[in-house]
């Protein structure tokens, strides 16, 4: 039996949004899907509404009559500040304000490790450290985590912010042996975030049960999250196909990988 009448997924055309279309299908009578990109044909239990989340009036409309929102929408990589501002910062504000006005009490936010990407790998930080974004993209994730804190403290809108490591079908480089999040574990984390009785304002790391870890993910215990997969299944393959990196390389020093190592995006665009 479905636990919800309607769940909204923003960014539904993306890699992880596509995963959740399948994995959350049985959790709600209806999945309402939105993205600026084409989402294909709606399944029997889906409602598809294509829109730009920078359009507040449209976001206000599509957050009506939903029980919860899984917010994955926005630009998924580094970009110009104006594009990040519109899609990720203004877009996320629109989602939170529309949810407040429409009485939506829980949001699951697809944050990123790039909100804290300038911490050294060996620091083994928890989820309660100050932000150290490694990019304009990471800055937008830090902003939305703070936005979620504000909307919980002031209005009682609960949020689980999932700082996603590297969620792909399988890890493709040595860094991902520590940061990989399987699709199955991601879906479990989202489902637990939706269904536990209380989450308040919670920040967790989206990683699988990898032998190497950059982050202390103890806070995920609040959700009852129990990862089923590990990057170590792919370790031999990854190490055979990649070279041992220079430990002094900025992309190795900091847990954000190539993002801290990259120059300021605006300098070349």
From TrEMBL:
It holds the Pfam family Epimerase. Gene3D superfamilies: NAD(P)-binding Rossmann-like Domain. The keyword Oxidoreductase applies. The keyword Cell cycle does not apply. Residues 7-166 form the NAD-dependent epimerase/dehydratase domain. Keywords: NAD, Oxidoreductase. Belongs to the NAD(P)-dependent epimerase/dehydratase family. This is NAD(P)-dependent oxidoreductase. It comes from Candidatus Pantoea multigeneris.
């Amino acid at each position: 039996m479905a636990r919800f009448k309607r769940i909204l997924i923003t960014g539904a055309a993306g890699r992880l949004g596509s995963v959740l279309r399948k994995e959350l299908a049985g959790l709600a009578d209806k999945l309402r899907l939105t993205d600026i990109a084409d989402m294909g044909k709606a399944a029997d239990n889906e409602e598809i509404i294509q829109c730009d989340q920078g359009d507040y009036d449209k976001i206000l409309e599509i957050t009506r009559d939903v029980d919860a929102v899984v917010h994955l929408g926005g630009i998924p990589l580094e970009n110009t500040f104006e594009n990040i501002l519109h899609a990720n910062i203004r877009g996320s504000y629109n989602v939170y304000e529309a949810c407040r006005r429409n009485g939506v009490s829980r949001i699951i936010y697809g944050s990123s490790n790039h909100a804290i990407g300038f911490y050294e790998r060996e620091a083994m930080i928890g989820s309660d450290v100050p932000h150290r974004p490694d990019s304009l993209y990471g800055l937008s994730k830090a902003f939305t985590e703070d936005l979620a804190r504000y909307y919980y403290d002031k209005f009682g809108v609960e949020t689980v912010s999932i700082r996603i490591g590297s969620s792909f079908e399988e890890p493709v480089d040595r860094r991902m042996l520590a940061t990989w999040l399987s699709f199955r574990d991601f879906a479990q984390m989202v489902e637990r975030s939706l269904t536990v009785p209380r989450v308040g304002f919670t920040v967790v790391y989206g990683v699988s049960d990898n032998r190497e870890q950059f982050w202390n993910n103890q806070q995920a215990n609040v959700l009852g999250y129990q990862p089923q997969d590990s990057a170590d299944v792919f370790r031999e393959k990854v190490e055979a196909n990649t070279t041992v990196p220079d430990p002094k390389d900025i992309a190795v020093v900091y847990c954000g990988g190539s993002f801290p190592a990259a120059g300021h995006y605006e300098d070349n665009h």
